[in-house]
Amino acid sequence: MVSLSPPVCDFGRPAPDFDLPGVDGRRHTLASARGPKGLLVMFICNHCPYVKAVIQRIVRDTTELAALGVGSIAIMSNDPTDYPEDSWQNMERIAHELEFPFPYVLDQTQAVAQAYGAVCTPDFFGYNDRLELQYRGRLDESRKETAAAGVRRDLFEAMRQVALTGQGPPRQIAGIGCSIKWRSS
User: Fold this and answer.
1) Distance (Å) of CA 109 to CA 67, 122, 139, 174
2) Which CATH homologous superfamily contains domain 3-179?
3) Are strands 177-179 and 3-4 parallel, antiparallel or unpaired?
4) Calpha distance 185→182 (Å, rounded)
5) What is the gyration radius of the CA atoms in the chain, in angstroms?
6) Which part of the chain is the Thioredoxin domain (predicted)?
């Protein structure tokens, strides 16, 4: 397992479009996922210890962001060949067990992850109401272990600011996660 940190936020970069199947049996697009005040696009998977450490906080934060008008979507782009925990069936199971308040979709071709420049799981992309990138940072100070209760909620605070002002914070702390498991050519 390789740990990577995504690059810093490329402010204003437009959100690439997508049309992906969700574990809810529906197809989801950029337009259907966005909220009136913005959109959080998350690249996650089921097996990554970094994701496992924060998944309950992701559910909490996306629920609270929805109340502020920010939509959320989680994209699984890993090749499950060597990581069966990332299979479609396990995506369905995890989304159901944890009652995801957002669509959980499969990027089987990995074209969406490439278009976004996603490098790891979790990798967060926060957009304003014009779908311009405003946040590319960590959820909080969690790593492979969940950080202590009460730590600063970096992602939530940044996206709340985006919902209120249309702009993300100028200072952002990069996240860290497992490298995306790219298909071998």
Assistant:
1) 32, 18, 26, 26
2) Glutaredoxin (3.40.30.10)
3) antiparallel
4) 9
5) 15
6) 9-144
- Tens place of pLDDT for every residue, the chain, 185 residues? 567 777 779 999 999 999 999 999 999 999 999 999 999 999 999 999 999 999 999 999 999 999 999 999 999 999 999 899 999 999 999 999 999 999 999 999 999 999 999 999 999 999 999 999 999 999 999 999 999 999 999 999 999 999 999 999 999 999 999 999 999 86
* Selection from 3, 13, 18 nearest residue 130 by Cα: 13
Residue extents of the structural domains in the chain: 3-179
Q: Interhelix angle for 154-165 vs 49-67, to 10°? A: 30
Angle 125-128-134 (CA atoms, 0-180°, nearest 5)?
50
Answer whether 0.85 is exceeded by the pTM: yes
